[in-house]
Amino acid sequence: MPRHFPRRADAFLFWFLSAAALALSAVSVAGSLAQVGRTFPGFVVWNNLFVPALGRPNWNGIRAGIPFRVRLAAMDGRPVSDREGVWAIVRSAPLGAVHRYTFEGPPGHADATTRAIASQRFTATDWAATMGVYVLNGLAFLVAGLAVFWLKPESRQSHALLAFGVIWGLTLVLAVDVLCSGRLERVYFMLQALSPAAILHLGLTFPEPRFPVKRSAGFLAGIYGVGLLAGFAQNRLLYRSYEGYLPLDNAVYLALAATGAIAIGSMAISVFRAHSPLARRRARVVLAGSLAAFLIPLPALVAFFLLGTSVSFSLLTLTGFMFPLSIGYAIARHDLFEADRFVKLTLVWAVLTGLVSIGYAGTVLAADRLVAGLALSRSPYFPVAFVIAALATIVPLRDLVQRAVDRVFYRTRVDYKETVARASERMTTLLDRDAIVAHVVSTLREVLFLEGATVWEFEDDGLLRRGAGSAGEATQAIPMSDPGLAAFSAHGSILSRDEVEESPRFRDCREALRALFYRFEATLLVPLTRTGQTRGLIVVGRKASGSPLSAEDLDVLRTLANEAAIALANAGAMEALRGAQEQLIRSERLAAIGELSAAVAHGIRNPLAGIRIAAQMGLEDLAADHPVRENLQDVISEVDKLEAQVRGILDFARPFEPTLAPVDLPVLVDDLVTTLRPQLDASGVSVEVKTDAGLPQAFVDSAHLGQALQALVVNAMEATPGGGRITIRLSPSPRLAGGARIAVEDTGPGVPPEMRERIFTLFTTTKRTGTGVGLAVVQKIVERHGGTIAIESADSGGARFVIDLPAPQGMA
User: Could you tell me which residues come within 8 angstroms of residue 674 by beta carbon, excluding any fewer than 6 positions away?
Assistant: First the structure.
């Protein structure tokens, strides 16, 4: 099963329903298309001779005024038993032959009615205008339900849409099979009876579960159980009792209308009463799609069944596809803005198209009456003038519709007090900076429906960097000395792009601020202020609607920025506290290692020396071919390894404070390479030293730093095969202002990713004969200088150790 689904059952359900829907739809559509080009009676009839409410105005049966939802009893005075018999008679006679059909309703209704109707050819246009409408809408519901379930299989809402999309979609698609071949009619009536339950299921689950679905799953089981019973009853009565089947079928259609009205009402309530702004937003979008799709069909069903109004059901399903489009996007997208824009544009152009079509038709009719008989109407320039006049009205009409849709979808009022209270309560529980930034960004996106929002903070090195919890493409860090950033920090309050362009206060720094807004692609900048200083900012993009930010929106931004600044300061203090605790733990660990090393030195090194001397003396007394000689050499080798391990522990545990003095780093590195030259030549490894321009003078303890660099170079040499290369690059530090960077890179195999996080931990080594002490000592020396050391992957595939040393105090 695909890994996309968290549960195997969901994967099986998706693929089973997809395959079943595809197979059933193919059979149904193929059976209906087989009727194109053939002779038919001028109306459609089911296999049990039931006459459904379906037809086109140009069909001879519709012109003759045949009654709907009655039973065909006789043809040309002779009783008929099924649809195949009717078709056989019609197709055995010439095209256009007139036949007399007798229709009878249920007992207690109107008497039998006879109509003389000429046969005609069923064209592709007839299929598209009747059965094609069912297929189009049915496939739209199927695709919406399956697509949303694929995108969000874990959501209760997507399960509800899957049930509704599959049941109602197949009901529409299989309806054409009932009208033509009838091979799947049993499945159709079962699905038709389940449709009210599926509608109610969706209406009480979207955009969030409500009573009684929220409280118990038994309610859903109950309504689907009722639907199954109705489906079995319909199938049983379909051929046995027309008098019993008709009331049950009427009840199913009325249930469709009732549950549809309940679902739309529930959605309308959610627009104002849903718990989250996002849920209310989704409800607004889907409510619009529901009204566009079902505002006419639902009352028409009631009028048809209760008032006897004649309506063709193919017209009732004409706009149904708008519902799966709107609800599918609303559920499937975590980010609703694309759905909003999609629905908004869809509605704008749908309404605009309708208005233009109506206006065009009305104008044509009016012009025809006004200019009829005038010479103007016969002028060759008249059509051109008419087209120009029509085009001149499109743009104002489009703007009018756009503003109307904007008011419906986007002119929401923000309850900023509730929003800030919930956001503040959440931030009091967060002590991680990334989590705080992500929470602020998500709150702004969900409440204000912004197209973009990011949080930036000043760090200790004086650079402004994007918070890791902010989504979006990374942007290079900005120094505090940036003119635009300095001007914004001096301003100290919310600043908009429009204010920068229009206010004379920013005349002197307008270009710098304009560049800052351009770099951020921002509409608004909101400062994060602590102790009267700007410590960061929130970058705000446009609203999804394109409308300006209101005063209430600014209140939300201002208050959330203040809360975020406090929360980030608390998180920073917590990080510092954790660092101090870690340093204390390390100090205690070093003290324990020091005590242990003293005991080791006293209790182990003297016996080791005695063992080595004894082995060495024994080795000198033995002949070169004596078999014990190899054993004594192994003893000496292992004693040397143990001595090196003990010496490394003593070096690591020995406290020291570096004596800082100005040091020329290139000279220090050249002396180191000269010292190691014999070892490098013996190993066949070359060393290249590169010094970048602008390298500052370092204030370090040359002895200790030389020891650390020697350990790194020796490690690189041992890891690099003969003919390899070690590169030592000296450059200004990009992390520590005024500091220096030393990078030692080799062409060896590199350090495995799983080892990098603990490579500086004591006793961690990647070498078979290593002690795991050298890099721990190197890190200790660097940190005693106030610097940092990190490991990276080199471009050559080897390892790169990077040391950043700070500038001396007062010189950064």
Answer: none
Work out whether strand 113-118 and strand 98-104 pair parallel, antiparallel, or are unpaired.
antiparallel
8-27+127-334 matches 577-653 in fold? no
Token pair 């490579």 is found at 759
The C-alpha atoms of residue 142 and residue 25 are separated, in whole angstroms, by 10
Tell me which long-range contacts 761-767 makes (C-beta under 8 A, separation of at least 24): 762/593, 762/652, 766/719, 767/718, 767/719
Selected from 3.30.450.40, 3.40.50.1390, 3.30.1490.190, 3.30.460.10, the CATH number assigned to the domain covering 416-572 reads 3.30.450.40
Give the other-Cβ count within 10 Å of 214's Cβ.
13
Instruction: Give the range among 182-196, 266-280, 625-639 with minimum mean pLDDT.
Output: 266-280
DSSP secondary structure letter of residue 504:
G
CA distance 614 to 638: 14
Q: If you compute the radius of gyration of the chain from its CA atoms, what whole number of angstroms results?
A: 41
Reading the block at residue 718, the tokens are 């041992």
133 near 317, Cβ under 8 Å? yes
CATH for 8-27+127-334 is: 1.20.1070
Whether the upstream peptide bond of residue 749 has omega within 30° of 0, thus cis, is no
CA angle 62, 66, 69 (to 5 degrees): 110
Residue type for position 444: L
Give the DSSP H/E element, type plus range, for residue 61. helix 60-63
Q: How confident is the model at residue 60 (pLDDT cuts 50, 70, 90)?
A: very high
pLDDT at 47: 93
Longest Cα–Cα distance of the chain, Å, equals 137
Q: Which two tokens stand for residue 28?
A: 């149904």
The domain defined by 38-121 carries CATH number 1.10.10.10: no
How far apart, in whole angstroms, are the C-alpha atoms of residue 3 and residue 150? 11
CATH fold for the domain made of 577-653: Helix Hairpins (1.10.287)
- pLDDT band, residue 332 (cuts 50/70/90): very low
The answer, yes or no, to whether residue 6 has pLDDT greater than 80, is no
What gap in Å lies between CA 403 and CA 686, rounded to an integer?
72
Strand order in the sheet with 113-118: 78-79, 71-75, 98-104, 113-118
Dist. CA 583–CA 88, nearest whole Å? 95
Q: Which residues pair with 120 in a beta bridge?
A: 40
The letter for the amino acid at 536 is: G
What is the CA 437 to chain-centroid distance, rounded?
18
Kindly list the domain boundaries of the chain, sorted by start residue: 8-27+127-334, 38-121, 353-409, 416-572, 577-653, 661-805
Query: Per-residue confidence at 763, pLDDT binned at 50, 70, 90?
Result: low
Q: Which residues contact 581 (CB under 8 A, 6 or more apart)?
A: none
Residue 801 has pLDDT above 80, yes or no: yes
Asked whether the beta carbons of 47 and 82 are under 8 A apart, the reply is yes
pLDDT tens-digit map of 596-635: 666 666 567 677 777 888 888 877 777 777 778 788 887 8
Considering the four listed CATH numbers 3.30.70.3040, 1.10.10.10, 3.30.565.10, 3.40.50.1240, the one that applies to the domain covering 661-805 is 3.30.565.10
Please list the alpha-helical segments (H only) found in 372-509. Answer: 382-409, 416-427, 433-448, 483-491, 497-502
The edge-to-edge listing of strands for the beta sheet with 686-691 is: 686-691, 725-732, 740-746, 799-805, 788-793
Chain mean pLDDT for the chain: 78
Terminal CA-to-CA distance of the chain, rounded, Å?
59
In one-letter notation, the amino acid at residue 293 is A
Q: Residues 79-90: pLDDT tens digits?
A: 999 999 999 999
- The pLDDT of 157-182, averaged and rounded, is 91
pTM for this structure?
0.48
> Which one, of 471, 499, 472, lies nearest residue 487 by Cα?
499
- Collapse the DSSP code of 450 into the 3-class scheme (helix H, G, I; strand E, B; otherwise coil) and give the result: strand
Residues 445, 804: Cα–Cα separation, whole Å: 38
